């Protein structure tokens, strides 16, 4: 009887969700549930393994769009994922994920961490309204939501990379996002105020910065995906593939042709429809050779 009630509740809930949200969940092999912390954990873990951190969509989206609207809507984001195996960088990944979380009943907002990065803050979920940090666009192992009041005691790690979120010692109302590699701090420049509530349209200037000709992801090919169930992460930067295992073992492979890059996208990343060839063509038209020898 209880199983029937749960199934019936999910069917009713699904009828209330927009079609894009149902497709979004199904792509992660998830069914709608009550908006609690364990379900948020499941969403984050699945999202990190299904929707890549990539700039292929960014290059193509910019090439095709003539207006100032350079961030896909949730409907476009899901359609691009289904048709082209796309994800995005922080604005696309986190903007669309927040829309999904709100559709599921979570309360939250976006917040800036730097001029070109933003993340999600979920509220009204844990006891004492403890805020929860979510970030699917950091290109870092943040594959779990972080409860901020106890964040200093947590370290999210994969291989030799890890992240800690701690209170700023000078401005205690703010938090700092710390990146470590092999135990060494490599970046502490991101910081945020959990109460600084923003919507996606508030980031129009930040988004525009990331489309400038000299912006990082307008001048390279970048694809990253965590395959947690296989105990590895994959990172492609131009023609260099890095495979990192959970135990910290690392392998680097240099790719020598478009065919090899397409094969890696399809066979290693599991993204056969990701249009890496088109992205490389766009870069070539900008005078950027992804196969150029590194200094």
Automatic annotation (TrEMBL):
InterPro entries: Arylamine_N-AcTrfase, Arylamine_NAT_domain_sf, Papain-like_cys_pep_sf. GO terms for molecular function: acetyltransferase activity. Keywords: Transferase. Pfam families: Acetyltransf_2. Belongs to the arylamine N-acetyltransferase family. This is Arylamine N-acetyltransferase.
């Amino acid at each position: 009887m209880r199983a029937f009630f749960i199934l019936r509740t999910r069917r009713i809930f699904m009828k209330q969700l927009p079609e894009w949200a149902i497709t979004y969940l199904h792509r992660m092999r998830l069914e709608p549930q009550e908006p609690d912390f364990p379900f948020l954990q499941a969403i984050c873990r699945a999202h990190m393994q299904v929707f890549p951190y990539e700039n292929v969509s960014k290059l193509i989206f910019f090439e095709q769009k003539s207006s100032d609207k350079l961030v896909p809507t949730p409907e476009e984001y899901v359609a691009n994922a289904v048709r082209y195996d796309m994800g995005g960088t922080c604005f696309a990944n986190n903007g669309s994920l927040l829309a999904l979380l709100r559709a599921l009943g979570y309360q939250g907002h976006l917040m800036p961490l730097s001029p070109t990065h933003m993340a999600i803050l979920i509220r009204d979920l844990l006891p004492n309204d403890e805020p929860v940090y979510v970030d699917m666009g950091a290109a870092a192992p943040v594959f779990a939501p972080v409860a901020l009041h106890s964040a200093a005691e947590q370290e999210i790690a994969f291989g030799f990379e890890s992240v800690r979120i701690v209170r700023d010692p000078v401005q205690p109302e703010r938090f700092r996002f710390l990146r470590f590699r092999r135990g060494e701090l490599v970046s502490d420049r991101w910081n945020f105020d959990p109460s600084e509530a923003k919507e996606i349209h508030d980031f129009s200037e930040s988004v525009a910065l990331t489309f400038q000709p000299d912006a990082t992801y307008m001048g390279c090919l970048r694809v990253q995906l965590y395959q947690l169930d296989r105990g590895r992460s994959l990172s492609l930067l131009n023609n260099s593939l890095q495979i990192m295992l959970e135990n910290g073992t690392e392998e680097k492979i240099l790719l020598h042709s478009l065919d090899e890059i397409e094969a890696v996208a399809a066979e290693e990343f599991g993204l056969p429809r990701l249009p890496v060839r088109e992205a490389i063509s766009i870069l070539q038209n900008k005078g950027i050779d992804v196969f150029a020898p590194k200094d």
